[in-house]
Design brief:
The protein is an alpha/beta fold. The chain has helices at residues 16-28, 48-59, 74-80, 93-109, 129-137, 148-158, and strands at 4-9, 31-37, 65-70, 85-89, 114-118. The chain has a five-stranded parallel β-sheet, with helices on both faces. ATP binds at residues 10-11, 18, 89-91, 99, 124-130. Its cofactor is Mg(2+). Its main location: cytoplasm.
Length: 164
């Protein structure tokens, strides 16, 4: 039986921490679907199609990884793509508490879906997309936290002439 996993998130933007988890999941499972959530409530910097394109570029080195955008319930997406496992990254105890609550809800909605929590590699434990956006909005360098194509996209997005 093939194991297809979903690694969901807003990925606004996708970071090296996310890619560390993608690489580890790609080694553990037959197929990894990076599921980019629409998440309009989070007021993302990048539109869904932009986040999908950036994630696709960043995940290109992984032969068994594909990227798809989705809206609606994550469990509906997991059911649609016939995923057996949901991979979630947890950096802190606060992340774990929130994710454990979500996991319990997911199990009620889709009992056959297993949830796997993966901690990030130590060097990425503090990296969060929200922090990357904050640094970039204030003119800080984010190159050490994101893939090169993402750093370029952030600079283009935040250049005053591109906001007209």
């Amino acid at each position: 039986m093939q194991t297809r996993v979903v690694f969901p998130g807003t990925f606004d933007p996708i970071t090296l921490g996310h890619l560390d988890l993608v690489a580890r999941a790609a080694r553990l499972f037959d197929e990894v679907i990076v599921a980019v959530a629409m998440s309009p409530g989070k007021r993302p910097l990048f539109q869904l199609d932009e986040r999908v394109a950036l994630a696709q570029a960043a995940c290109r080195p992984f032969a068994n990884v594909r990227v798809e955008g989705f809206s609606g319930l994550l469990v509906d997406f997991a059911r649609q793509v016939q995923a057996n496992v949901l991979v979630r990254g947890v950096r802190t105890t606060m992340d774990f508490e929130y994710e454990a609550q979500l996991a319990a809800m997911y199990r009620r909605l889709l009992p056959q879906l297993e949830i796997l929590f993966l901690p990030p590699a130590e060097e990425h434990a503090f990296v969060a997309s929200s922090l990357i956006r904050e640094i970039a909005l204030h003119g800080g360098e984010v190159d050490q936290f994101v893939p090169p194509e993402v750093a370029r996209a952030i600079r283009l997005k935040l250049t005053p002439s591109s906001q007209h």
